[in-house]
Amino acid sequence: MQKLSEEQLENLAQDLDAIRNEQMADLGQKDADYIRGIIRLHRTLEFGGRALMPLGFIPPFFLAGMTSLGIAKILENMEIGHNVMHGQYDWMNDPELNSQTYEWDTICTADSWKRTHNYEHHTYTNVIGKDRDYGYAVLRLEDETPWKPMHLLQMINFINLSVFFQWGVGVHELEFEKLRSGEVTLREKAEFLRDFARKGGRQVFKDYAFYPALTLPVAPVVIAGNFGANLIRNLWASSVIFCGHFTEDAESFTEEECENESRGHWYLRQLTGSSNFTGPNWVYTLSGHLSHQIEHHVFPDIPAYRYREISPQVQAVCEKYGLHYNADSFPRQYATVLKRVTAFSLPDRMRERLFPEFNEGDEQGKVADRTTSTSLVSRLRNRVSSTLSAAA
Questions:
Q1: Closest listed residue to residue 344, CA positions, set 184, 146, 67
Q2: Given CB 3.0 to 4.6 Å as the disulfide criterion, which of 58, 165, 167, 285 pairs with 234?
Q3: Distance of alpha carbon 221 from alpha carbon 49, whole angstroms
Q4: What DSSP character marks residue 117?
Q5: What average pLDDT does this structure show over 184-202?
Q6: Given a cut of 70, is residue 323 above it in pLDDT?
Q7: Residues 102 and 114: beta-carbon distance below 8 Å
Q8: Contact 163/231 with Cβ under 8 angstroms?
Q9: How far apart are the C-alpha atoms of 320 and 172, rounded to whole Å?
Q10: What does the alpha-carbon distance between residue 340 and residue 54 come to, in Å, rounded to a whole number?
Q11: Contact at 8 Å (CB) between 284 and 291?
């Protein structure tokens, strides 16, 4: 972790608190209009997608209906549900936008999400052994987790997690790794399992029984379209989440580093453990503005669409204290996610040779040489070329 003095940490907290207080004091009608406009857009897209789906035996209608429904699910999960459950709109006193009662359109229950994400993840961001969102207990992403042969196959886990993301998030609180080790029992998880079964059953019934039954002659088409819409949502949501914390420059932390941390130290961890990505306006909206994950982790209860406005101020604070503001285009950030997943699937000695940028203690070198790091393919190609030249 990058180091700041206690005085610097105190000043860092004051600077970021000032930004937050300014934004909170400005909340008003424009924020209410924004979220209600997004809700109208979501409902329109969902209605349009459901209405087009029965005509799905005509390929253009199938594609249009599936895409419309998929985007509706993304908007509801990312820009509405996630942000509402963070309390970003509690100040409106609108029962439909209350963080304590909102239930979103996905397999995971709102209560489970708030326990594992709002509390565990946002409190212990990227702290190994505390933040189970870091790798979702199926991916090795750092040195603290000992390498095992099964990690050679973790790219398969990565693909499965991406494709079935809503299910992975839904069962996240089950804590499979602790069940395997005997730390917890299924009996202790009985209440969670009942809630998960009820919510999951409703979601499956809605998409794969109720709506297909309404269009019985073309039910298989509707089932396929609903499956495709869920796949679109899963792949997009997982990509956005992974780009927020699994990138090459996003730091992870040990429990010892975070003992008795001050507010300034907590802010420092959020700034250095998160990463942003850039793109056109639609990317920001469909990501629930988690394109600005740094700002979200520093200010989780500020309406997310404000993060783009806040971003230059946060970046200036980072520059003031010599902190790296981790931002790049979406394709580049996702490429570094794949790079990290690949690197830590390998035995340590092999990784240290092929991916020296992930070696412990090499953070300063990474900062100095971010734009000139060589890809694995290039290194292997150069090695082969040198060998062939020597043989010739």
A1: 146
A2: 165
A3: 13
A4: I
A5: 97
A6: yes
A7: no
A8: yes
A9: 38
A10: 42
A11: yes
Query: Which of 147, 172, 303 lies closest to 238 in space, CA to CA?
Result: 172
- pLDDT for 131: 96
Query: What does the alpha-carbon distance between residue 59 and residue 118 come to, in Å, rounded to a whole number?
Result: 41
DSSP state at residue 58: S
Q: How far apart are CA 76 and CA 41, in angstroms?
A: 10
Q: Residue 362: pLDDT band by 50, 70, 90 thresholds?
A: low
Q: Which DSSP string do the residues of 324-348 spell out, in sequence order?
A: ---EEEHHHHHHHHHHHHHHTTS-H
Instruction: End-to-end CA distance of the chain: give it in Å, rounded.
Output: 47
Kindly state the tokens that stand for 376.
């694995």
Which letter does DSSP use for residue 80 in this model?
I
Between CA 155 and CA 176 the distance in angstroms is 19
Helix axes 263-273, 6-25, angle to 10 degrees: 80
- DSSP, collapsed to helix, strand or coil, labels residue 185 as coil
Can you tell me the distance from the alpha carbon of 19 to that of 317, in angstroms, rounded to the nearest whole number? 10
Angle, in degrees to the nearest 10, between helices 59-74 and 29-52: 150
% of residues, the chain, pLDDT over 90: 90
Fill in the DSSP letter of residue 127.
B
Q: What is the mean pLDDT of the chain?
A: 92
pLDDT per residue over 123-170, tens digit each? 999 999 999 999 999 999 999 999 999 999 999 999 999 999 999 999
Banded model confidence at residue 361, pLDDT cuts 50, 70, 90 = low
For residue range 26-41, list pLDDT tens digits in order: 999 999 999 999 999 9
Handedness of CA 336, 340, 341, 346 (dihedral sign): positive
Q: Who contacts 151 (Cβ-Cβ below 8 Å, separation ≥6)?
A: 140, 344, 345, 346
Looking at residue 371, its pLDDT comes to: 36
Strand blocks (E) in 165-291? 276-278
Residue with tokens 């603290």: 144
